[in-house]
Amino acid sequence: SLSAATSAVWLAAYGLFVLSQNSMVLSAAIFITLIGLIIYLHFVKIDQESLLVIGSLGIQVTSSYASGKESTTFIEMSRVKDVVINEAIHMQKVIYYLCILLRDPGDPQGVSEVVPLFQSSKPRLDCLIEVYKSCQEILEQRKTAPQSS
């Protein structure tokens, strides 16, 4: 999509340059392309995703962008119902992804929200299974640990 957008800007700029013979059109195309690239690197391109699960506190999901910016989301453990591997069919392919199921405050047996993880990195199923097993161990320890009041 980045290549397509860049190509479209450059083709439009070249067409306008040929019609107007004004070099400012090409300068504007360079400027627009650079601004678009900076926006893409700062808000779209995710380099790394991480998951930190602490049984007594919650789950922290961190995304690191190509520009160095980080986005962190924290989910309290009391809101977590379960962690599951879900599958989806996209085009002619089955895609597996890890999800956090959040409790419905009104219905203890229900799920209020599904939070997908690792949407940018799209790890293979064998990697997801390892993360899933680790999460399940922590969730199981939390269930068997005595609850403090």
TrEMBL record:
Entry-linked InterPro entries: PIG-H (IPR044215), PIGH-H_dom (IPR019328)
Keywords: Membrane, Transferase, Transmembrane, Transmembrane helix
The keyword Oxidoreductase belongs to this UniProt entry's keyword annotation: no
Protein's pathway: Glycolipid biosynthesis; glycosylphosphatidylinositol-anchor biosynthesis
Pfam families listed in its UniProt record: PIG-H
Membrane-spanning residues: 24-43
Signal peptide: none
GO terms, biological process: GPI anchor biosynthetic process
Ranges of residues in domain Phosphatidylinositol N-acetylglucosaminyltransferase subunit H conserved: 50-119
GO cellular component: glycosylphosphatidylinositol-N-acetylglucosaminyltransferase (GPI-GnT) complex
GO molecular function, one term: transferase activity
Family label: Belongs to the PIGH family.
The name this protein goes by in its record: PIGH acetylglucosaminyltransferase
Organism: Aegotheles bennettii
